[in-house]
Design brief:
Elements: H1 2-17, H2 21-37, H3 39-46, H4 52-66, H5 70-81, H6 88-102, E1 105-112, H7 118-132, E2 135-142, E3 150-154, E4 157-160, H8 163-177
Parallel strand pairs: 1-2
Antiparallel strand pairs: 1-3, 3-4
Length: 178
């Protein structure tokens, strides 16, 4: 989304210039967690009935109570003033991508049927680091429908070794042979 990209570029540049990328990452995590766990906050952000000043007051109050950086508070206030809070999730994704790219890292979204152990995550990160020649951060997800195996996404690159995918392939092959 172009709106999220513009805000992400501007915010990243401000935090980079001030050498506070770690603080930005902490602010994102805190606010994203609040957004994920509070239906009331999501309602304020997404409702067309809530006025701009009400949205702005809400995010400013919440940001102050959470102890977020002044730059992050300013970003939220500006977005509320311009009715752009609806892109926060995309903005946070793009900012995280920029931060990891700046560090020379990539994020691997790994979906498995059961949670990966710490040693499995470490092993997988090492294998992917060799493949992509960058430090890899594992972002785990659990989805029982994959049955077994893994689905690994790094940018536009995807490896699907899930049993569900293999069963679907076999099912399609059997239909074609009929």
């Amino acid at each position: 989304m172009a709106i999220a990209d513009r805000y992400a570029t501007a915010a990243f540049d401000v935090f980079l210039e001030e050498s506070t990328l770690e603080r930005l990452e902490d602010d994102i995590d805190l606010f994203a967690n609040a957004l994920a766990t509070s239906p009331e906050l999501r309602q304020v952000i997404n409702s067309p009935i809530i006025t701009r000043p009400e949205q702005r007051a809400t995010v400013e109050t919440l940001a102050a109570k959470m102890g977020l950086s002044q730059e992050f508070k300013n970003l939220l206030s500006l977005m509320a003033e311009r009715r752009r809070l609806f892109v926060l999730e995309q903005l946070f994704r793009r900012l995280r991508d920029r931060i990891t790219a700046h560090r020379g890292e990539v994020t691997a979204e790994v979906t498995s049927a059961a949670p990966l152990s710490a040693s499995q995550s470490t092993q997988l990160a090492e294998i992917l680091s060799k493949r992509f020649e960058k430090a890899v951060t594992i972002k785990p997800a659990v989805d029982a429908s994959v049955i077994g195996g893994l689905i690994v996404k790094v940018g536009s690159f995807m490896i699907d070794t899930s049993i569900a995918s293999q069963l679907n392939f076999l099912h399609s092959a059997m239909k074609e042979s009929e």
